[in-house]
Amino acid sequence: MAMMQGVQKNTLYVGGLAEEVNESILHAAFIPFGDIKDVKTPLDQATQKHRSFGFVTFLERDDAASAMDNMDGAELYGRVLTVNYALPERIKGGEQGWAAQPIWADADTWFERQQQEEEMRRIEAENRAAMQAAEDLHRKQVAEQREGEKEEEVEIRDDPMAQAEAEVLQQSNQ
Question: Strands of 8-15's sheet, edge to edge?
């Protein structure tokens, strides 16, 4: 019975409708099973004809069950009908683009996700700032080190005694 959770047990899906079948004919075909609350045949927006299926909503669940048992596989206007319990109407919106509930139903989780995303952006910004500071410090240290090397080179070039010592050091390292 876990599969039946999202099912509307007093509304039936009726598939395989012939083009000639309208809501009145569908109503007449299902009224022997009990009082009908509503009959709908959704229209194709381009052709303004029904899309070969419809929905019949009974006042009582038992009447819907009886109609399904008797009409599934039955013929109407030369076409074999498929009759099942209808799934809940899908409303545009929700996280996946379609939902069985209105868009505001997931508002609490939406706000929660927004707060989490904002926190992540804040942490990422802090990390970027820390990385930038570390890179700036490293560049400064490298620049200072290079500046110190240049000063040593200048000192060696200006002092003949220091040049001689540097040459001796180089020869001894080889």
Answer: 36-40, 53-58, 8-15, 82-86
CA distance 128 to 99: 38
CATH (residue range 11-85): 3.30.70.330
* pLDDT, position 3: 45
pTM comes to: 0.50
Q: Give residue limits of the domains in the chain.
A: 11-85, 108-159
DSSP H or E run through 110: helix 107-158
Measure the CA–CA gap between 73 and 24, rounded to whole angstroms: 20
pLDDT-wise least confident of 52-56, 64-68, 100-104, 143-147: 100-104
In angstroms, the CA 102 to CA 53 distance is 24
Return the SS3 of 53: strand
Instruction: Quote the CA–CA distance of 152 and 155 in Å, as a whole number.
Output: 5
